[in-house]
Amino acid sequence: MSDLETARLVLHPMSVGEAERLVAGDAGGGDRWAPGYPSDGDVSAAERFLRACADTGDPRPFGDYEIRRREDGRVIGGVGFHAPADGTGGVTIGYGLVPSARGKGYASEALRGLLLFAREHGITRVQGDADHDNVASQHVMTAAGMRPTGEDERVRFFEIAWADDTTASPGPHS
């Protein structure tokens, strides 16, 4: 499976070996991790990916992706799907960046790239959520074209859905 490229980023589909190194905290194998990578969220996503591979086979293309800066190849975070599409064509996404990469538009750019990829691969609905106090993550999802759909005591829910027109864009490209 090939990398997904955006203007400033490469979304690299994580392999089993890369996920195992990430869980072990071992940046071997030529990995170029930015300081602060992996976060607890990255480790959890890699563990979920490895469980899926063991239980049902490799979920790619609906797996996890490393977010790499094109300029230096450093891994600055992760973005990905929590599981393959459900029976209605819907998926749930998650993402995160190392602290030094935040506030530069990388998360919105990565999410827009992943949404476009999902759309091109027949996904009809993408959902995500953010803690109430994580306003930055809420802004990322709205910047990528997702809209709030509700909330519970812990999180605010977001979604984007498409009709059958596969030429539609996933959201504003700023």
User: What would you call the shape?
Assistant: globular
Helix vs. strand class: alpha+beta
Strand content: 25-35%
Query: Kindly state the mean pLDDT as a whole number?
Result: 90
Q: Strand order within the widest sheet?
A: 1-2-3-4-5-6-8-7
The biggest beta sheet reads: 8 strands, mixed
CA distance, first residue to last residue: 27 Å
Percent helix among the residues?
Answer: 25-40%
How many whole angstroms does the radius of gyration measure?
15 Å
* Number of H/I helices: 4
Q: Number of DSSP strands? A: 8
Which series of helices and strands comes N to C?
A: EEHHEEEHEHEE
Provide the low-confidence segments as ranges.
Answer: none
Describe the structure.
With 174 residues, this protein is α+β, with helices and mostly antiparallel strands. It is built from four helices and eight strands. It has helices at residues 16-24, 40-56, 106-120, 135-143, and strands spanning 4-5, 9-13, 64-69, 75-81, 90-97, 125-131, 147-151, 155-161. It has an eight-stranded mixed sheet with strand order 1-2-3-4-5-6-8-7. Helix 1 crosses helix 2 (40-56) and helix 3 (106-120) packs across helix 4 (135-143). The radius of gyration is 15 Å and the shape is globular.
Descriptors:
174 residues; 27% strand; 8 strands; alpha+beta; 8-stranded mixed sheet
Give a short synopsis of this structure.
By secondary structure, the chain is of the alpha+beta class. The chain has helices at 16-24, 40-56, 106-120, 135-143; strands at 4-5, 9-13, 64-69, 75-81, 90-97, 125-131, 147-151, 155-161.
